[in-house]
Amino acid sequence: MTEASNRDKGTATVPDSKEQMVKGSAWMTAGSIFSRILGAIYIIPWGIWFGSYFFQGNALYGKGYNIYSFFLIAAIAGIPSAIAKQVAHYNTMNEYGVGFRLYKHGFVLAALTGIICAGLLFFGAPLFDGGDPRVIPVLHSLAWAVLIIPIMSLSRGFFQGYQQMAPSAISQFVEQLARVVYMLASAYIIMRVLHGSWITAVSQSTFAACIGAIAGTLTLLWYYLRHKSTFDSLRAGSNNQIVVPAKQLYQEILQQALPFIVLGAGITIFQLIDQYTFFNFMRSTGITSEWQLNDLFAMFSVNANKLIMITVSLSSALAITVVPLLSEAYTRHDKKDISQQLTNSVLLFEFVMIPSALGMAAIAHPLNILFYGTSHKELAAAVLAFSSFVSIMLGLFSVMSAIMQGVSQNKRAVRYFAVGTIVKLLLQWPCIHYLGVFGPLVATTVGFLVVNYLIIRWLNGEFGVDFEGIAKKTNGILSFSLIMCAVAFLMVKVSSWVFKHFAVVDTKVISLFVVTIAVVVAGYLYVYLVLHTRLADTVLGDRTQRLRQLLRIK
């Protein structure tokens, strides 16, 4: 906001995009990570209270949430990201008044799409249950969140257009906190106090999304009221030389928003393909037990997915940050700045994603026991480890699709995603038939690999990607990540041997101890290596010096 307020009328100072990206990513990453961690930690007490129905409840939760996620993305319709991009575009020209009008018209659209999609989800629930009637009450409970979240997300997009990532991050955390508190309270009361139905408990756990949305929206409202005078002064200082009719504003929002639906729902679309094909395709392998199929589905689509999305959220946070920044550079026709931001984006993605994914794979066994217990522990740990590697492709897609949106190549990105989806569909049956529970993960990896390749190839042809510079730093990031991974894996193996030697079986307490030690030691090792070699400086800039002093690393 400071930079924006210091702009002269009619001229926009070009901000240090790398500094902005790192700062914005830090806020979005913090909000996203804390939210994801909260969203994963709740599963420990939640699972204990569900008892023998844990995997079944988690599978039902996942089935409902996958469908809800798609409807939610359709309801949001990409409007928040479109608003962030267009607000940044007009702010660059010192036309803050237009940005406020965009928000007002976007508000009407968000409310309308929320009502339509919530209605479709509620009344159309029997059409989407995939043959499992237990999904219907879960979808009914989730429809209420679809009413509120589009408006909340729109408001986040408005703040992001001003490069204000803190309100989004804080509201995201508050939303998740309120959601988790309600989930745990309702699950405990229904399952342990009232000894009620586990299906009712799952339905209340999903209704928590509505409670969280209300809390998140109120947080954003509080932030706006607190900074209202600053926003008013920016609007008062606008050039006011551009008059955009309401019809054109709606067209701009929709043109930018519609492709965001497909790209924003990319990962969810692949998950829905899994949900509607896995059960039938697995039956062809001879597994017909519904209970067993639900357990396998929970393993890869819900349990592992919940944990890997913590690391994917790192790249999603970066993706959200990069759209308005690229939009500003694209508005200035500054190809050099766009190329530099591409390099920064890829390096920042690799810097956090590669060690996170490899680290999670290394500690998959105790991590899985900590969250999901000892049921199918060997297979579940292998699925989680494999999913950790898959998460790199998912995260890269989040960043690449956001970059394409930032440079107004939405339709092209949708076409590339369509190609990747076709590849996923073609591979789905043979992969599941021959690889079982790992099949959907392999098909997803190849599908997103194709999409990412097509996008990177086009970006290189249009703006030039500094592959040589990226490769040099990537080698360092990968080397340090592999060292960290090896240390974490070794610590897990040694700990396992020690506890078995003393006849101590796998428990959640032991697993928590092993995970904590491995994460602290291996994590510190990675941080030490990137700071000591100054690799972090080339990715994060000068701010690493303070961290180096804090950790007393020369």
Automatic annotation (TrEMBL):
Transmembrane segments: 33-55, 67-84, 105-126, 138-159, 180-199, 205-225, 257-273, 307-326, 347-367, 379-401, 413-429, 435-456, 477-498, 510-531
The keyword Acyltransferase is annotated on this UniProt entry: no
Keyword list, A-Z: Cell membrane, Membrane, Transmembrane, Transmembrane helix
Subcellular location: Cell membrane
Any Pfam family hit: Polysacc_synt
Coiled-coil ranges from the UniProt annotation: none
Cellular component GO terms held in the UniProt record: plasma membrane
Main subcellular localisation: membrane
Keyword check for Cell membrane: yes
Membrane-protein topology: Multi-pass membrane protein
PANTHER family: LIPID II FLIPPASE MURJ, PST FAMILY PREDICTED COLANIC ACID TRANSPORTER
Protein name: Oligosaccharide flippase family protein
Protein's organism: Secundilactobacillus folii
